[in-house]
Every structure is written in C-alpha cells, then in structure tokens.
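Quick one: YpuI family protein from Paenibacillus arenilitoris, structure tokens please.
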Amino acid sequence: MPSANVKALTESTQSKLKDAVGQLEPFLNNNALLQLTGEDSGEDAQLFYKGLLSDLRHLLVFSEVSVEKLGVLLRRPNFDTDYAERVLYEVYHHCVSAYFYPKNECYSEDGRYAYTGQDAIRFRYKPIRSARDIVLNLSKIFEELRDELAYYENDYMTQRRMQGQK
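--- reply ---
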C-alpha cells in the first residue's frame, strides 16, 4: 500500500479511535454495576452487566494504547510505513475484534440485519438505555474501522510471511 494512503489511514484510524475513547471513558467512569442493574438485581442482569463492563474496559484500554501508538507514529518527522502497517494490523486485531467478538458475549453482530437498515447488534439480555446506546454508537465507529482496515485482517500478514518477516 502506498505510504500516502497508509498515512491518511493512520490519521483516520486515530481520529475514530479517539472518538470511541471519548464515548467509552465517560460511560465507564459514570456507570457502576449497581447503577446499571438498578432494581433488576437478578443473577442474569448481574452476569450480563459484569461481562459488558469488562468487555468495554478491555476495549477502552486497547483503543487508548492504539491511539498512543498512532500518535507517536504521526509525530515522527519521517513517517515509518512499515511500523504504521504493523500498528494498523494490531488495531484491527485488538480493537475491532474486541468490539465485534467480545469475550463475555453480552452482544453479538447478526449480519442478517446489516442490510435492512436495522441495528445489527443483538444483546443477550435487554440492557438499559445508556448501555444499549454506548454499544450501538460504538458499532458505527468500529464498522467503519473494520471496512477501512479489512486489508489488515489477512493480507498484511500473508504479505509479511511471503517477504520472510514476522
């Protein structure tokens, strides 16, 4: 991929991840397990929200680390295309994958709804409005990142292996 394209993609990715961090951080800072479960203190609700908060915290950390790496990369006087491609690969496999394949499986993407104009995210348990909104708002960001970084899902490592690198 030409370095001008990689640099533009790096800037775009950093911007989108900053937006995701800007939404995630206040949500996690302002919501605790007791606030999310509210009056619904059943075991299903507890497990759902514990898992959701855990997944969102992981996503926040992965996103913050990636924003920092991308920032360092963009501040260098000479843009390092090879390192940028490596970081974009990591963004795809850590951030995008962490969003679409959460460890606790509190929500999942149902591709059948992607083309109907409906939300493709399906929750395992009916969340409160703020929890639902944060996940659905993030879906827009991570869908765009997934589309833009699709090359780094498979082709990037295949190219590196063919060149004899790891």
